[in-house]
Amino acid sequence: MKISILGGTGPQGRGLALRFARAGIEVAIGSREAARAADAATELGALLNPAAAAISGHDIRAAVAQADELVILAVPYSAHDATLESIKDLLVGKVLIDIAVPLAQGDPKRVAMPAAGSATEAAQALLGESIPVVGALHNVSATVLNDLEHSINCDVLVCGNDLAAKEKVIELIRKLDVAAYNCGPAESARCIEAITPILIRLNISKKVPFTHAGIRICPPDAH
Amino acid sequence: MKISILGGTGPQGRGLALRFARAGIEVAIGSREAARAADAATELGALLNPAAAAISGHDIRAAVAQADELVILAVPYSAHDATLESIKDLLVGKVLIDIAVPLAQGDPKRVAMPAAGSATEAAQALLGESIPVVGALHNVSATVLNDLEHSINCDVLVCGNDLAAKEKVIELIRKLDVAAYNCGPAESARCIEAITPILIRLNISKKVPFTHAGIRICPPDAH
């Protein structure tokens, strides 16, 4: 199995590449500059033991072409729409996993949602319904992802309009030893994406006794 | 200390009345019919041991008048705006705690937010900025609240535009032995209120091994 991670040289992309490669999934990371992506792939590979799957580096379009089916969009939100426009033709037959959180300019404690309602809905509108978009992995701290000594302190809330695509993404994410839940249609991204700035606010506030807070679905307490 | 709970005869209101009275806080429950509120107060009191604070029943306006400062609005969402209009004059000098979740008609797995963005923002707009509105307690299952044998499996995400009011509400909620966090301005209610239908969806889906899911803020995992 081979996935691609666009924006794979950023903190979120690097952490995801490490975690997926360690779980045995080949990763093609994409960046605007192929050389930068190749350097990052080499660096990341050196952090993993030889049993891990390979990480390779490419320009954005070449990275998309490498994916069997699943393409993770982890570019900065400012490049979200332009990146999608530039790869739309290559995404036919694939599934886009959108992890974007539209943080307000200059204030990571707030969202500034696009007119479509959320980044996931904007991506789905831009790509058209024949290319399934699945929103996921919004609420996982990049620091946590890159800290391979620890497990991920977050459940993953997954949304999108195509159930089969969501099920594939949930299966992928569970390979990281985290719980992943189908949280409904793309519209649910209005909530799920907006959880991230709330976590950032808590981390900044010093009102919690930790940084890099995550969010989890909890069963009723036992006695 | 005495609070009032409007809609105190509904499942959420009853559970909150029980929990707060058990924690030593007097509760005046309000309902459209004073007799129904009085009956509910008697029933609820009988479920608690004699060390608990008193629960009394009143019509809506009389219940508001009983509160020292904090008034919880727990009426069905369909009665949200009309109830606020009917008590606006009595809320001067008090703090309204809005627990409403604007679920879509006929589909508790979705929200249908009002034009203001969320119920909390709609309440704040209706009451005017001089009466602070604090959104809280949206994500706690009524079944969990009413099950006094178990603790509450949920953190409480609190939002609103008035910091002093939020701090009072956080202090109140912590008396229920749950964590409560300041999650920013009233606008954060667009996210917080929308978490509830996601939890309802999970509970209905049978994809989680439990019902009455809650949501919690989690620290990074230890080794």
From TrEMBL, chains A, B:
All copies of domain Pyrroline-5-carboxylate reductase catalytic N-terminal, residue ranges:
2-102
Query: Gene3D superfamilies recorded for this chain?
Result: NAD(P)-binding Rossmann-like Domain
Molecular functions per Gene Ontology: coenzyme F420 binding; cupric reductase (NADH) activity; ferric-chelate reductase (NADPH) activity; NADP binding; oxidoreductase activity, acting on NAD(P)H
What InterPro entries does the entry give? Answer: NAD(P)-bd_dom_sf, NpdG, P5C_Rdtase_cat_N, STEAP_metalloreductase
GO cellular component, as recorded: plasma membrane
Q: Which SUPFAM superfamilies match?
A: NAD(P)-binding Rossmann-fold domains
Which Pfam family is one of those matched by this entry?
F420_oxidored
**Entry keyword Ribosomal protein:** no
Q: Which UniProt keywords apply?
A: Oxidoreductase
Provide the GO biological process annotations: copper ion import; NADPH regeneration
Its domain of life reads Bacteria
Name of the protein described by the UniProt record = NADPH-dependent F420 reductase
UniProt source species: Marinobacterium aestuarii
